[in-house]
Amino acid sequence: MGAQTLDRHLAGRNQKLKAIAALKGQSLKDYVLGRALGDAPALDRMSEDEAFTALTNFLEPRIEQARRGQLSGKSLDEIRREERRRRC
Question: Do the Cβ atoms of 14 and 8 come closer than 8 Å?
């Protein structure tokens, strides 16, 4: 894929994400973060120390899995397809 084709492809995906976020009444940033960190704790109304503790608790199991070598061999596309199927 050439650079110009890739630029057009990414611009199209960005527009699609913006439209989906707008339909949900969210900013693009909030929509993307919600999708990427859906199981992360809500940080609303938390102090900085509480938010840091929540983040630490959220990341600890993932860090331990990585240390044990429990990493996924799936591609990003495979993960996306599985997640789409799971949500339908």
Answer: no
